[in-house]
Specification:
This protein has 13 helices and five strands. The protein is of the alpha+beta class and about 280 residues long. The chain folds into two domains: about 120 residues, Alpha-Beta Complex (Ribosomal Protein L22, Chain A); about 100 residues, no CATH class. The strands form two sheets. It has a three-stranded antiparallel beta sheet. It has a two-stranded antiparallel ribbon with strand order 3-4.
Length: about 280
Amino acid sequence: MAAPAAVRDRPHTQAQVRYVRMSASKARQVLDLIRGKSVGAADDVLALSERDAALVIQKCLRSAVANAEHNDGLDPEELFVATCFADEGPTLRRFRPRARGRATRIRKRTCHITVIVARYSPDELAVRREIERTKGSGKGRSSDASSRRRRVAKSRGEEVPTEDAVEETVDEPTVDEPTVDETDTAVEATAEELVEEHTKDELLEIADEAGVEVAKSSNKAEIAGAIEVATASADELAEAHTKDELLELAEQAGVEVAKSWTKPQIAEAIVASREDD
């Protein structure tokens, strides 16, 4: 097939979907929306379209972009939909029974969808990059924010800050490092709080700082339970856990307790085993 006049003088690649089970007129209504747009904008239009034809056309467009990238070595960011069209395919004829033994013909249309992407010319690429650079600089947003600050200061009767002063007063984000008090607080937390607030690597570090030996293959709950058993007092264990939970903690710590014991007795047995070690 001869190349269309719109792409005859520039690098281009095409993709085609044949025997699509829909009429060409339905496909043409969607193709009219993306013709001439960049591949990124066209893909967004198709993704937001509610028509069924958009799904097939989107696959065809992405196939054309992939062909251009892998077969012709073109950059997808420099491509646009040069032309796209839908040709009529064979019509499938079906029949529906009607009254008095008659039959009515049903025509099920098909079509062939073709999408051709081409590379922007150097002048067009320069213009597009300049527009993208201007949009990405954020001048509009910064000017709006600074003008808003000036209006607020003027309404309050304060000194109007200049743009240089505003830029100087911007504080750089700082990363708060955990202090000793925060580490101690993490050690004193319950197992559930430790699991919710820390990752597995952080729990391993807390266990190492607390002198608790745990296997790296252990899950977060097991590590947090070991930390709590090794650091919490008997009163804290009895207040923070039910009797069944205390029995599980005692079993994990290797402490023999009776099910008839009360919560304080189980907690004291866990703490006593830790002191004996």
